[in-house]
User: Which sequence fits this backbone?
């Protein structure tokens, strides 16, 4: 039996919030090979990454981790083997790796597999977080390993190019990986993502929007007192065309105790939060535009309407959420 | 309903109000009374069952950390150094020399169709120092088909030349995890997921596909029964719909010999999905099936150098281990499950992983104070004393991997931990001094299931080479017995139903040929389990 052409594998690494999903969406918009398979190997609280990828649902799988200390099942090695048994075989594989993944270990899979070939290992770095990540006692070493192992380093949120922080950021990154091609996020958008060779000619970039995507918007609200759940549900339904996801832990006027709210797709679910939550908050993610702004305003009113007295000091404030 | 009274030479009840007795009365699967026979005349008509009159009865053992994967391993050829009892009760002699191993591989190959791969498990390189199992040794046994030998640790395998050839791995020296011989050629030993992937890819099947099938669960229950275990966890079950159906099916079968306590693998779901799934499962249990536990994986293993260690990290200078998920994600998971009122069992091997989870539990308790949460740190093999004091304050339970003292103690002493830290490997006595509820476990199939052996490890603290690791952390036999019964039951939130023999609790017992409390502690591991009783039903040795 002749061995079919190997499937190209791209590994996308980087910490939470570094812009992995945005990068992947850019690639998608530029066109992926036919029947590409996207594997999102991530966890998280508000895990909307997988839902924000603009690709065929049946070609995106979300992969929780198995046990890394033994083969208790669900390992990436097993799951990739399973994917390659799909008919038709994927035209290309993209792995959006978990924030703490060791990309070298994933890349090795492609290096030894007869069915895969390694296309590239991309690492996204949030320049504004460099000193934070480098010093983190729990994850500093993984952060460095990701930068060291990549073939393409993409830097977001660079400070102004005449600042000390700018020079420092580049020094840190170059010391870790002098060979990686440094592509900047200014080459995104309509033009293809092409690796730009390492160069001193780096330009400061405006920070990415909160969701890293011009089309998305999110609003976070903290309420000081219980809210009218029925009214909230009505609002979320009324604006269903612009709301992608909402979640929160909320005190309800009609119930004792806190409830966890979850909206995905068209369904709203309330789960009992069995203990009184410290917060009373709602996060809402949707499509940027006038209607979403209207919704935000309405959500802010939720509390004020029912109890004008609380208006003032601790009223709900919109805030950009770190949704990625 | 009829009453059965079992007599015994001695019953160790684990009930502090009446630690010892001679008779136990059972009705409707539950303990109706424990005491002398005279005191039982008042209970009504009974049948006296004297078959255990010369034996010792204890509460059925509770294994608080093991995996149903044990049941799936027996699909493959056993190659361990020590003897091990298979689910059918067949005793497999230990393959204690390379020659024996080769002979067994040859015999195993003969039972398969031509060309069909031979897969074996349980090989432990620790006992073959000086000889490295390589492809040549395997080729000398079997070369007409692929051979895969999985090591006991489950993260290393050795394959023969045919397997290397078929997977193409022979062309890939220089990849981490493909071990090389003196000539720089792959020697057949494979580690890490890259090499594993190539093997799974070539075999065309996942080795553990059947892990949640009913047949696997039945085998698992048999292995448990053989070891005197009447309540057992499956501490990493994804709780898929099929998996839940299988659990309900087998526990609904007449004569199923154990109670199962699956813990949902948290990393298989988003925290929100996980909470929802588990709350839904709470309704689906029965007398032999209890849901409610969540299992989180924080880091890897010490012997695999994937555990997250605090300074100065590994004794031999190896790089620090890896996180199984981003620390912030792990901390958030603790918050979500804790606030939902669920109970967490958290895998933490290295002391840095322990630190992260102590921080997480502490902040979860700040936000949502909760008495009696019984969150349990699992393994916590090198937890330090400051961490133990925090553990006590936070009301956490510990379930330590006592079998490591024996199986990897020498490795820890020499390579991973060094002298001082190997003194506090599994610091059980310290945990007891602080009043922490503590259990001990086998983590089967990583080490063989056998609570009495595990208790022996906790009492003697001897490594395989006979070195005692930290005499100060030895516990008494009575304390060790509590850890494999009531202590483990408490960590599963089942101490009101199992773990001791007292009125109203399930009539679950282990029948032993010798008395663990009078025997020389050094012989604890040699005590034989003659039978178990589950809900009053006798499951005698096959
Ligand atoms: Zn385990």
Assistant:
């Amino acid at each position: 039996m002749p061995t079919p052409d190997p499937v190209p594998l791209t590994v996308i690494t980087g910490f939470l919030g570094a812009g992995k999903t945005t990068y992947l969406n850019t690639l998608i918009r530029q066109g992926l090979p036919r029947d590409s398979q996207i594997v999102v190997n991530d966890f998280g609280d508000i895990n909307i990454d997988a839902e924000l990828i603009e690709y065929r649902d049946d070609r995106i799988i979300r992969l929780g981790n198995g046990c890394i200390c033994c083969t208790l099942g669900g390992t990436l090695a097993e799951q990739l083997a399973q994917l390659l048994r799909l008919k038709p075989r994927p035209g290309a594989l993209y792995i959006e790796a978990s924030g703490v993944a060791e990309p070298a270990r994933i890349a090795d899979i492609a290096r030894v597999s007869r069915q895969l070939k390694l296309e590239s290992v991309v690492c996204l770095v949030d320049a504004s977080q460099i000193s934070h990540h480098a010093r983190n006692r729990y994850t500093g070493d993984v952060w460095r390993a990701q930068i060291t192992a990549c073939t393409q380093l993409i830097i977001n949120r660079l400070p102004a190019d005449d600042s000390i922080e700018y020079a420092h950021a580049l020094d840190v990154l170059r010391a870790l990986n002098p060979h990686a091609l440094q592509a900047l996020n200014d080459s995104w958008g309509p033009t293809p993502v092409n690796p730009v060779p390492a160069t001193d000619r780096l330009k400061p970039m405006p920070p990415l929007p909160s969701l890293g995507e011009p089309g998305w918007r999110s609003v976070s609200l903290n309420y000081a007192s219980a809210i009218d759940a029925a009214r909230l549900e009505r609002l979320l339904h009324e604006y269903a065309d612009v709301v992608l996801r909402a979640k929160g832990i909320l005190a309800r006027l009609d119930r004792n105790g806190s409830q966890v709210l979850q909206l995905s797709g068209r369904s709203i679910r309330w789960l009992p939060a069995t203990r009184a939550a410290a917060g009373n908050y709602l996060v809402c993610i949707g499509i940027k535009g006038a209607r979403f702004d209207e919704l935000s305003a309405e959500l802010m009113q939720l509390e004020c309407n029912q109890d004008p007295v609380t208006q003032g000091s601790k009223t709900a404030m919109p805030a950009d959420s770190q949704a990625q | 309903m009829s009453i059965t009274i079992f007599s015994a030479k001695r019953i160790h009840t684990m009930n502090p109000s009446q630690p010892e007795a001679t008779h136990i009365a059972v009705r409707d699967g539950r303990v109706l009374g424990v005491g002398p026979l005279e005191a039982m005349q008042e209970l009504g008509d009974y049948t006296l069952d004297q078959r255990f009159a010369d034996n010792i009865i204890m509460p059925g053992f509770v294994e608080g950390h093991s995996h149903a994967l044990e049941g799936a391993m027996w699909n493959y050829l056993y190659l361990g150094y020590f003897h091990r009892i298979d689910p059918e009760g067949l005793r497999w002699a230990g393959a204690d020399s390379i020659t024996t191993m080769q002979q067994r591989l040859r015999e195993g190959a003969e039972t398969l169709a031509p060309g069909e791969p031979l897969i074996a498990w349980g090989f432990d390189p620790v006992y073959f120092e000086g000889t490295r199992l390589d492809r040549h040794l395997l080729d000398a046994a079997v070369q007409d088909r692929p051979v895969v030998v999985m090591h006991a640790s489950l993260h290393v395998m050795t394959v023969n030349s045919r397997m290397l050839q078929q997977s193409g791995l022979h062309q890939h020296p220089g990849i981490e995890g493909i071990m090389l011989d003196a000539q720089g050629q792959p020697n057949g030993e494979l580690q890490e997921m890259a090499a594993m992937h190539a093997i799974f890819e070539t075999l065309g099947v996942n080795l553990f596909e059947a892990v949640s099938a009913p047949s696997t669960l039945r085998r698992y229950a048999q292995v448990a029964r053989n070891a005197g275990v009447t309540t057992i966890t499956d501490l990493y079950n994804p709780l898929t719909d099929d998996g839940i159906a299988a659990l309900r099916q087998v526990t609904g079968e007449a004569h199923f010999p154990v109670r199962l306590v699956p813990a949902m693998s948290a990393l298989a779901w988003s925290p929100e999905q996980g909470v929802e799934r588990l709350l839904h499962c709470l309704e689906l249990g029965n007398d032999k099936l209890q849901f409610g536990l969540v299992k989180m994986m924080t880091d890897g293993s010490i012997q695999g150098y994937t555990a997250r260690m605090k300074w100065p990290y590994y004794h031999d200078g190896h790089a620090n281990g890896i996180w199984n998920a981003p620390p912030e994600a792990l901390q958030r998971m603790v918050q979500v499950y804790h606030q939902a009122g669920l109970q967490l069992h958290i895998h933490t091997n290295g002391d840095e992983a322990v630190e992260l989870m102590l921080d997480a539990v502490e902040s979860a308790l700040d936000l949502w104070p909760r008495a009696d949460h019984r969150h349990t740190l699992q393994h916590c093999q090198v937890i330090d004393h400051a961490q133990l004091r925090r553990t006590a304050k936070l009301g956490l339970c510990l379930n330590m991997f006592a079998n490591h003292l024996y199986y990897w103690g020498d490795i820890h002493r020499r390579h991973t931990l060094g002298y001082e830290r190997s003194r506090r490997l599994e610091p059980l006595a310290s945990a007891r001094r602080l009043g922490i509820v503590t259990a001990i476990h086998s983590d089967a199939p990583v080490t063989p299931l056998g609570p009495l052996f595990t208790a022996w490890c906790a009492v003697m603290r001897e490594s395989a080479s006979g070195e005692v690791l930290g005499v100060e952390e030895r516990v008494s036999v009575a304390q060790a017995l509590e850890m494999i019964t009531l202590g483990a039951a408490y960590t599963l939130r089942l101490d009101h139903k199992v773990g001791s023999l007292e009125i109203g609790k399930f009539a679950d017992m282990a029948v032993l040929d010798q008395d663990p409390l009078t025997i020389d502690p050094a012989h604890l591991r040699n005590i034989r389990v003659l039978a178990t009783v589950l809900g009053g039903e006798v499951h005698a040795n096959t």
